[in-house]
Protein backbone atom coordinates (compact mmCIF):
# COMPACT_ATOMS: atom_id res chain seq x y z
CA UNK A 1 0.00 0.00 0.00
CA UNK A 2 2.75 2.47 0.99
CA UNK A 3 4.89 1.64 -2.03
CA UNK A 4 2.02 2.30 -4.42
CA UNK A 5 1.04 5.53 -2.66
CA UNK A 6 4.61 6.86 -2.67
CA UNK A 7 5.10 6.12 -6.34
CA UNK A 8 1.89 7.86 -7.33
CA UNK A 9 2.74 10.94 -5.27
CA UNK A 10 6.21 11.19 -6.76
CA UNK A 11 4.82 11.08 -10.27
CA UNK A 12 2.90 14.29 -9.57
CA UNK A 13 5.95 16.36 -8.59
CA UNK A 14 6.81 18.56 -11.55
CA UNK A 15 5.46 15.83 -13.82
CA UNK A 16 8.49 13.62 -13.10
CA UNK A 17 8.65 10.01 -12.05
CA UNK A 18 11.40 9.12 -9.58
CA UNK A 19 12.65 5.65 -8.78
CA UNK A 20 14.85 4.42 -5.97
CA UNK A 21 18.53 4.24 -6.87
CA UNK A 22 19.07 0.94 -5.10
CA UNK A 23 15.62 -0.42 -6.01
CA UNK A 24 14.90 -1.21 -2.35
CA UNK A 25 13.25 2.11 -1.35
CA UNK A 26 15.41 2.22 1.78
CA UNK A 27 18.40 4.44 0.89
CA UNK A 28 20.16 6.34 3.69
CA UNK A 29 19.49 10.09 3.61
CA UNK A 30 21.55 12.64 5.53
CA UNK A 31 22.76 16.24 5.41
CA UNK A 32 26.38 15.40 4.56
CA UNK A 33 25.87 13.80 1.14
CA UNK A 34 25.34 16.21 -1.71
CA UNK A 35 23.30 13.80 -3.83
CA UNK A 36 20.63 11.78 -2.02
CA UNK A 37 18.17 9.40 -3.61
CA UNK A 38 15.23 11.64 -4.55
CA UNK A 39 12.68 8.88 -4.09
CA UNK A 40 13.82 7.97 -0.56
CA UNK A 41 14.39 11.60 0.42
CA UNK A 42 10.79 12.45 -0.49
CA UNK A 43 9.57 9.35 1.31
CA UNK A 44 11.39 10.50 4.46
CA UNK A 45 9.78 13.94 4.16
CA UNK A 46 6.33 12.35 4.15
CA UNK A 47 7.22 10.24 7.19
CA UNK A 48 8.13 13.43 9.06
CA UNK A 49 4.75 14.97 8.30
CA UNK A 50 5.83 17.34 5.53
CA UNK A 51 2.54 17.44 3.62
CA UNK A 52 0.74 20.30 1.82
CA UNK A 53 -1.83 20.53 4.62
CA UNK A 54 0.98 21.12 7.11
CA UNK A 55 2.56 24.10 5.31
CA UNK A 56 2.33 27.40 7.26
CA UNK A 57 2.29 30.26 4.78
CA UNK A 58 3.67 33.67 5.88
CA UNK A 59 4.29 32.33 9.35
CA UNK A 60 6.44 35.33 10.36
CA UNK A 61 3.93 37.99 9.36
CA UNK A 62 1.65 39.64 11.92
CA UNK A 63 -1.45 38.41 10.08
CA UNK A 64 -1.46 34.73 9.14
CA UNK A 65 -2.95 33.60 5.86
CA UNK A 66 -3.96 30.08 4.94
CA UNK A 67 -3.60 28.58 1.52
CA UNK A 68 -5.38 25.42 0.44
CA UNK A 69 -3.45 22.69 -1.37
CA UNK A 70 -4.30 21.94 -4.96
CA UNK A 71 -7.22 19.51 -5.52
CA UNK A 72 -4.85 17.06 -7.21
CA UNK A 73 -2.53 16.87 -4.20
CA UNK A 74 -5.46 16.83 -1.77
CA UNK A 75 -6.99 13.82 -3.51
CA UNK A 76 -3.69 11.98 -3.39
CA UNK A 77 -3.45 12.36 0.39
CA UNK A 78 -7.02 11.29 0.97
CA UNK A 79 -6.69 8.18 -1.17
CA UNK A 80 -5.43 5.90 1.60
CA UNK A 81 -7.06 6.94 4.89
CA UNK A 82 -6.71 3.53 6.47
CA UNK A 83 -2.98 3.26 5.95
CA UNK A 84 -1.27 3.93 9.34
CA UNK A 85 1.74 5.36 7.50
CA UNK A 86 -0.26 7.56 5.14
CA UNK A 87 0.30 11.35 5.12
CA UNK A 88 -3.20 11.97 6.50
CA UNK A 89 -2.39 10.09 9.69
CA UNK A 90 1.05 11.68 9.81
CA UNK A 91 -0.54 15.14 9.75
CA UNK A 92 -2.76 14.21 12.67
CA UNK A 93 0.29 13.02 14.62
CA UNK A 94 2.53 15.93 13.57
CA UNK A 95 3.02 17.28 17.09
CA UNK A 96 4.22 13.91 18.37
CA UNK A 97 6.67 13.48 15.48
CA UNK A 98 8.11 16.99 15.21
CA UNK A 99 7.90 18.22 18.81
CA UNK A 100 8.61 16.34 21.98
CA UNK A 101 7.40 19.24 24.16
CA UNK A 102 5.37 22.34 23.42
CA UNK A 103 4.27 25.14 25.76
CA UNK A 104 2.12 28.10 24.89
CA UNK A 105 1.39 31.23 26.92
CA UNK A 106 0.22 34.81 26.48
CA UNK A 107 2.57 37.32 28.12
CA UNK A 108 1.61 41.01 28.05
CA UNK A 109 0.12 41.12 24.54
CA UNK A 110 2.55 38.53 23.15
CA UNK A 111 1.76 34.89 22.37
CA UNK A 112 4.82 33.03 23.60
CA UNK A 113 5.34 29.48 22.37
CA UNK A 114 8.27 27.16 23.06
CA UNK A 115 8.74 23.99 21.06
CA UNK A 116 11.40 21.37 21.56
CA UNK A 117 12.31 19.35 18.50
CA UNK A 118 13.32 15.71 18.45
CA UNK A 119 16.95 16.69 19.08
CA UNK A 120 16.01 18.51 22.27
CA UNK A 121 16.72 21.97 20.84
CA UNK A 122 14.21 24.70 21.78
CA UNK A 123 12.44 26.86 19.22
CA UNK A 124 10.75 30.03 20.50
CA UNK A 125 7.95 31.65 18.50
CA UNK A 126 6.59 35.07 19.43
CA UNK A 127 3.42 36.52 17.94
CA UNK A 128 3.41 40.23 18.88
CA UNK A 129 0.23 41.20 17.05
CA UNK A 130 -1.42 42.20 20.34
CA UNK A 131 1.54 44.39 21.29
CA UNK A 132 1.51 46.16 17.93
CA UNK A 133 -2.22 46.79 18.27
CA UNK A 134 -1.74 48.34 21.72
CA UNK A 135 1.10 50.54 20.47
CA UNK A 136 -1.11 51.69 17.61
CA UNK A 137 -3.81 52.60 20.15
CA UNK A 138 -1.28 54.74 22.04
CA UNK A 139 -0.24 56.45 18.81
CA UNK A 140 -3.87 57.14 17.92
CA UNK A 141 -5.29 58.11 21.31
CA UNK A 142 -2.53 59.42 23.61
CA UNK A 143 -2.69 63.15 24.31
CA UNK A 144 -0.26 64.86 26.76
CA UNK A 145 -1.85 66.55 29.77
CA UNK A 146 -2.94 70.18 29.48
CA UNK A 147 -0.57 71.39 32.19
CA UNK A 148 2.51 70.81 30.00
CA UNK A 149 1.25 72.38 26.77
CA UNK A 150 2.89 75.69 27.66
CA UNK A 151 6.31 74.04 28.21
CA UNK A 152 9.01 74.04 25.57
CA UNK A 153 10.19 70.84 23.89
CA UNK A 154 13.01 70.03 26.30
CA UNK A 155 10.88 70.52 29.41
CA UNK A 156 8.09 68.40 27.93
CA UNK A 157 10.56 65.59 27.30
CA UNK A 158 11.88 65.94 30.85
CA UNK A 159 8.32 65.70 32.16
CA UNK A 160 7.82 62.53 30.06
CA UNK A 161 11.07 61.06 31.41
CA UNK A 162 9.99 61.67 35.01
CA UNK A 163 6.68 59.91 34.28
CA UNK A 164 8.53 56.96 32.74
CA UNK A 165 10.79 56.59 35.78
CA UNK A 166 7.87 56.77 38.18
CA UNK A 167 6.07 53.99 36.34
CA UNK A 168 9.08 51.69 35.96
CA UNK A 169 10.81 52.53 39.27
CA UNK A 170 14.15 53.34 37.68
CA UNK A 171 15.62 54.07 41.12
CA UNK A 172 14.97 50.50 42.31
CA UNK A 173 17.54 47.84 41.46
CA UNK A 174 16.70 44.16 41.88
CA UNK A 175 19.50 41.60 41.82
CA UNK A 176 18.68 38.21 40.30
CA UNK A 177 20.77 35.17 39.40
CA UNK A 178 18.73 34.35 36.32
CA UNK A 179 15.75 35.68 34.38
CA UNK A 180 13.17 33.88 32.28
CA UNK A 181 11.99 34.78 28.79
CA UNK A 182 8.55 35.45 30.28
CA UNK A 183 9.99 38.08 32.65
CA UNK A 184 12.00 39.69 29.84
CA UNK A 185 8.89 40.00 27.69
CA UNK A 186 6.70 41.34 30.49
CA UNK A 187 9.21 44.06 31.35
CA UNK A 188 10.22 44.90 27.80
CA UNK A 189 6.70 45.17 26.41
CA UNK A 190 5.58 47.57 29.14
CA UNK A 191 8.67 49.67 28.52
CA UNK A 192 7.94 49.80 24.78
CA UNK A 193 4.52 51.31 25.45
CA UNK A 194 5.96 53.81 27.93
CA UNK A 195 8.67 54.85 25.46
CA UNK A 196 5.91 55.37 22.90
CA UNK A 197 4.24 57.79 25.31
CA UNK A 198 7.58 59.55 25.83
CA UNK A 199 7.86 60.12 22.07
CA UNK A 200 4.25 61.32 21.89
CA UNK A 201 5.26 64.35 23.98
CA UNK A 202 7.13 65.57 20.89
CA UNK A 203 5.00 67.65 18.52
CA UNK A 204 7.00 66.66 15.38
CA UNK A 205 6.63 63.00 16.31
CA UNK A 206 2.86 63.34 16.68
CA UNK A 207 2.70 64.96 13.24
CA UNK A 208 4.25 61.93 11.52
CA UNK A 209 2.18 59.24 9.84
CA UNK A 210 1.46 56.12 11.91
CA UNK A 211 3.76 54.07 9.68
CA UNK A 212 6.69 56.44 10.26
CA UNK A 213 5.95 56.61 13.99
CA UNK A 214 6.01 52.82 14.24
CA UNK A 215 9.23 52.53 12.24
CA UNK A 216 10.92 55.17 14.39
CA UNK A 217 9.83 53.39 17.57
CA UNK A 218 11.19 50.07 16.30
CA UNK A 219 14.54 51.64 15.41
CA UNK A 220 15.19 53.50 18.67
CA UNK A 221 13.35 51.92 21.62
CA UNK A 222 16.11 49.45 22.54
CA UNK A 223 18.80 52.15 22.49
CA UNK A 224 16.51 54.49 24.45
CA UNK A 225 15.87 51.85 27.11
CA UNK A 226 19.54 50.97 27.53
CA UNK A 227 20.74 54.58 27.68
CA UNK A 228 18.14 55.40 30.33
CA UNK A 229 19.26 52.35 32.32
CA UNK A 230 22.94 53.35 32.02
CA UNK A 231 22.15 56.78 33.45
CA UNK A 232 19.97 55.38 36.25
CA UNK A 233 22.65 52.85 37.18
CA UNK A 234 25.34 55.54 37.30
CA UNK A 235 23.15 57.73 39.49
CA UNK A 236 22.55 54.88 41.93
CA UNK A 237 26.01 53.27 42.06
CA UNK A 238 28.44 55.85 40.70
CA UNK A 239 30.00 57.85 43.54
CA UNK A 240 31.75 60.25 41.18
CA UNK A 241 28.53 60.62 39.21
CA UNK A 242 26.67 61.52 42.38
CA UNK A 243 29.34 63.94 43.65
CA UNK A 244 30.02 65.72 40.36
CA UNK A 245 26.38 65.78 39.26
CA UNK A 246 27.47 65.20 35.68
CA UNK A 247 23.92 64.80 34.41
CA UNK A 248 20.71 66.42 35.55
CA UNK A 249 17.26 65.07 34.71
CA UNK A 250 16.91 67.75 32.03
CA UNK A 251 20.20 66.70 30.42
CA UNK A 252 19.15 63.05 30.50
CA UNK A 253 15.90 63.95 28.73
CA UNK A 254 17.94 65.85 26.15
CA UNK A 255 20.21 62.84 25.60
CA UNK A 256 17.32 60.43 25.11
CA UNK A 257 15.43 62.72 22.74
CA UNK A 258 18.57 63.72 20.83
CA UNK A 259 19.68 60.12 20.36
CA UNK A 260 16.18 59.04 19.26
CA UNK A 261 15.99 61.67 16.53
CA UNK A 262 19.58 61.13 15.41
CA UNK A 263 19.03 57.41 14.86
CA UNK A 264 15.59 57.85 13.29
CA UNK A 265 16.79 60.56 10.91
CA UNK A 266 19.68 58.44 9.64
CA UNK A 267 17.68 55.24 9.21
CA UNK A 268 14.27 56.42 7.98
CA UNK A 269 14.88 59.61 5.93
CA UNK A 270 11.89 61.38 4.29
CA UNK A 271 9.42 63.09 6.62
CA UNK A 272 11.19 61.60 9.63
CA UNK A 273 14.47 63.27 8.61
CA UNK A 274 12.74 66.65 8.30
CA UNK A 275 11.12 66.24 11.72
CA UNK A 276 14.47 65.08 13.12
CA UNK A 277 16.32 68.19 11.96
CA UNK A 278 13.60 70.48 13.33
CA UNK A 279 13.43 68.74 16.71
CA UNK A 280 17.20 68.53 17.20
CA UNK A 281 17.55 72.25 16.50
CA UNK A 282 14.80 73.06 19.03
CA UNK A 283 16.38 70.78 21.66
CA UNK A 284 19.82 72.37 21.19
CA UNK A 285 18.45 75.91 21.54
CA UNK A 286 16.45 75.02 24.65
CA UNK A 287 19.40 73.24 26.26
CA UNK A 288 21.45 76.41 25.69
CA UNK A 289 18.80 78.49 27.48
CA UNK A 290 18.68 75.91 30.29
CA UNK A 291 22.43 76.24 30.87
CA UNK A 292 22.46 80.04 30.69
CA UNK A 293 19.28 80.91 32.59
CA UNK A 294 18.82 78.06 35.06
CA UNK A 295 22.25 76.55 35.74
CA UNK A 296 24.10 79.85 35.21
CA UNK A 297 26.77 78.15 33.12
CA UNK A 298 27.90 80.46 30.31
CA UNK A 299 30.81 78.10 29.53
CA UNK A 300 29.18 74.69 29.18
CA UNK A 301 31.25 73.29 26.29
CA UNK A 302 32.95 70.59 28.38
CA UNK A 303 29.59 69.48 29.76
CA UNK A 304 28.11 69.20 26.27
CA UNK A 305 31.13 67.21 25.07
CA UNK A 306 30.56 64.66 27.85
CA UNK A 307 26.90 64.34 26.89
CA UNK A 308 27.77 63.73 23.23
CA UNK A 309 30.42 61.19 24.24
CA UNK A 310 27.82 59.27 26.26
CA UNK A 311 25.41 59.25 23.30
CA UNK A 312 28.14 58.05 20.93
CA UNK A 313 29.31 55.35 23.35
CA UNK A 314 25.74 54.08 23.84
CA UNK A 315 25.22 53.89 20.07
CA UNK A 316 28.53 52.08 19.61
CA UNK A 317 27.55 49.46 22.19
CA UNK A 318 24.16 49.07 20.54
CA UNK A 319 25.50 48.56 17.01
CA UNK A 320 28.20 46.14 18.17
CA UNK A 321 25.54 44.06 19.89
CA UNK A 322 23.28 44.27 16.84
CA UNK A 323 26.07 43.09 14.53
CA UNK A 324 26.80 40.21 16.90
CA UNK A 325 23.14 39.18 16.95
CA UNK A 326 23.01 39.33 13.14
CA UNK A 327 25.84 36.78 13.02
CA UNK A 328 24.10 34.64 15.63
CA UNK A 329 20.91 34.59 13.55
CA UNK A 330 22.77 33.80 10.32
CA UNK A 331 24.16 30.62 11.88
CA UNK A 332 20.86 29.83 13.62
CA UNK A 333 22.38 29.79 17.12
CA UNK A 334 19.52 31.82 18.58
CA UNK A 335 16.26 30.25 17.54
CA UNK A 336 13.66 32.91 18.31
CA UNK A 337 11.13 33.64 15.58
CA UNK A 338 9.07 36.84 15.93
CA UNK A 339 5.99 37.69 13.87
CA UNK A 340 7.45 41.21 13.36
CA UNK A 341 11.25 40.73 13.55
CA UNK A 342 12.06 44.46 13.42
CA UNK A 343 10.52 45.10 16.85
CA UNK A 344 12.95 42.83 18.73
CA UNK A 345 15.84 42.95 16.26
CA UNK A 346 18.34 44.46 18.71
CA UNK A 347 16.66 43.44 21.98
CA UNK A 348 17.61 39.78 22.30
From TrEMBL:
Keywords: DNA-binding, Metal-binding, Nucleus, Receptor, Transcription, Transcription regulation, Zinc, Zinc-finger. Residues 146-347 form the NR LBD domain. Transmembrane segments: none annotated. The keyword DNA-binding applies. Residues 1-57 form the Nuclear receptor domain. GO terms for molecular function: DNA-binding transcription factor activity; sequence-specific DNA binding; zinc ion binding. InterPro entries: C.elegans_Orphan_NR (IPR051152), NHR-like_dom_sf (IPR035500), Nucl_hrmn_rcpt_lig-bd (IPR000536), Znf_hrmn_rcpt (IPR001628), Znf_NHR/GATA (IPR013088). PROSITE patterns: NR_LBD (PS51843), NUCLEAR_REC_DBD_2 (PS51030). It comes from the Eukaryota. The keyword Transcription regulation applies. Belongs to the nuclear hormone receptor family. This is NR LBD domain-containing protein. The lineage of its organism: Eukaryota, Metazoa, Ecdysozoa, Nematoda, Chromadorea.
